[in-house]
Amino acid sequence: MKNLNDRLLEILKASGQISGKDAEGVLEEHGKNPGEKIRNILIRKGLVAEKELISILGAELKIPFLNLSKYKIDPEVIRLVSEKLARAHQAVPVSRIGGKLTIAIADPLNIVAIDDIALHTGTRVDCVISTEKDIQEALDRFYPRAGEDMTALASAAASDATEELSVIKSEEDSDVTRVTGTGSEAPVVKLVDLLILEALRKRASDIHIEPFEKKVRVRYRVDGHLTEAFEIPRKNQNAVLTRLKIMSRLDITENRVPQDGRFKIRLHDKEVDFRVSVLPVYFGNKVVMRILDKSALSFGLDHLGFLPETLEAFKAAVTKPFGMILITGPTGSGKSTTLYSILSQLNTPEKNIITIEDPIEYQIEGITQIHARPEVGLDFANGLRAILRQSPDIVMVGEIRDAETADIAIKAALTGQLVLSTLHTNDAAGAMTRLVDMRVEPFLIASSVILVAAQRLCRKICDRCKEKVGIPKEVFERLGVSLEKIVPDAKERNFFRGKGCDHCGRTGYRGRMGVLETIVIDDAIRDLVIKRASAFEIKNYALEKGMTTLREDALKKCCQGLTTLDEVIRVTMEDE
């Protein structure tokens, strides 16, 4: 089949829009400059307007014309086609009905593009025709900022000079050096400032700067999901890395070993901490910055999205004068936030609260916090021994990693302290057997642990673009759950999704909440632990007593319209 360049002049001559002489002139220019499209030569020479040209093509080829600038596209449809694929073929997905995807494209005869999109999406592909200008604007609107170079980004950063972004030299020195503004005119400084400002605006928890063969990719983690934000030309890689190392007080001459640092910025009236990790990789150094913005967090058990029965169990446990509370889950499951929320609730002048953490993520006024430094002998075990000589009422250990720390923490919980800590296990019942595996005596575990909770984080539906959806009952049956058991009243089963809007970055989600599986330790569970029962046996007993599993907790929140079924499936495993 002929491509658009081959057919275009034939169509225009046949419709009387241009003469044979005009066509010869266009072909002559195209021969001198084969890189310029015939359609662009026609428009540049004033022989035909772009929209008129598209209209004629559409009528001739029997392909509808779509004005993309006025057309609203569902973000779910946009997500069907990756940015790389869309930009490569200059095509924008506009709708999906059943197994058919419709794309807007300037060259509807580009069979390679159509087949490639069909292959990647697993759909049949139909076309509508749009102007190149509208398609480019739509690509930039729905896939923002990707592919911009350093100069363009630096120019964009200049417009943010009024943001008053400042970097604090050190925690001991309150002198502030302006990063954006006078004295900081270098493009790399503006670019790094922009990366930070954009991350804060998008509520990112992490910034990833990753070198590849021909580019450096920048991604933000927002609500637990990584999304591509920028591409930096490879030639600017070292300048960006050096700038970040200077800010983090790292060795700019060392590129062979990992380095860790931190810096603090002041934006308006708030301070934000950044924890920086630099890792040597094949094409240079990968940088990950964890953003610790205390002002963006609401510490307190009431703000974590717990179900009423879970909240009641936690509030009862934290009022105990001694014992151990364990939060389990993988990295990034919100364990630290839950512990900080408990500490904030218990933080009164009458209590001596001491923590040992690696690292200290958030500083809380009124609480003594210790940064573990294993390289100088201050590990969790030694730090915990020292803490117990300070007459604490409440102790928080960042993580129980070894038998020695577990043994000291358990004994502290038996001798008058309330001890809070975390473990890496998949479910709540597994925490008890993990401590046994660490060679802690079962009778000590049974006597000290008062509550165990396994935790995950799921995204919340954006309130501003929330819409009701129907989910067939069969879907839940395939998931192996009974809606009647989880939410008996059918009137209370309401399912929603986020359409996507500017407020949520067109994701349909904004913010996260905890999903928990909580076991309150009673005499029967203590007996099971002493008998060295398996995690399976402990879990079965807890289920008989009415424990809500991680999946059930998530599904209840789905039925309340707080999250989506997709999130439930993503963050929880099917109950065995």
What does this structure look like?
It is a single chain. The chain has 576 residues and is α/β, with parallel strands linked by helices. 38% of the residues lie in helices and 24% in strands. It is built from 23 helices and 20 strands. It has an 8-stranded antiparallel sheet with strand order 5-4-9-10-11-6-7-8, covered by helices on one side. Helix 16 packs antiparallel against helix 21 and helix 20 runs antiparallel to helix 21 (535-544).
Question: Unreliable runs, pLDDT <50, ≥5 residues?
Answer: 145-150, 156-162, 171-184
Using the CA coordinates, give the radius of gyration.
29 Å
Shape: elongated
Q: Helices and strands: which structural class?
A: alpha/beta
Largest sheet: spatial strand order? 5-4-9-10-11-6-7-8
* Major pleated sheet: 8 strands, antiparallel
Ends apart, CA distance between termini: 56 Å
Tell how many strands the DSSP assignment holds.
Answer: 20
**Beta fraction of the residues?**
15-25%
Q: With helices defined by DSSP (H or I, 4 residues minimum), what is the helix count?
A: 23
What is the average per-residue confidence, as pLDDT, rounded to a whole number?
85
Q: Report the helical percentage.
A: 25-40%
Quick description:
The chain has 23 helices and 20 strands.
Q: What distinguishing features does this structure have?
A:
single chain, 576 residues, alpha/beta, seven-stranded mixed sheet, elongated
Reconstruct the topology from this structure.
Blueprint: H1 4-14, H2 20-32, H3 38-44, H4 50-61, H5 75-78, H6 83-89, E1 91-97, E2 100-105, H7 111-121, E3 124-129, H8 132-142, H9 150-158, E4 165-168, E5 176-178, H10 187-201, E6 204-211, E7 215-222, E8 225-233, H11 237-247, E9 259-267, E10 270-281, E11 284-292, H12 308-318, E12 323-328, H13 335-346, E13 353-357, E14 368-371, H14 380-388, E15 394-397, H15 403-414, E16 418-423, H16 429-437, H17 442-448, E17 449-461, E18 466-469, H18 473-478, H19 483-486, E19 495-498, E20 509-520, H20 523-530, H21 535-544, H22 550-559, H23 565-571
Parallel strand pairs: 2-3, 12-16, 12-17, 13-14, 13-15, 15-16
Antiparallel strand pairs: 1-2, 4-5, 4-9, 6-7, 6-11, 7-8, 9-10, 10-11, 17-20, 18-19
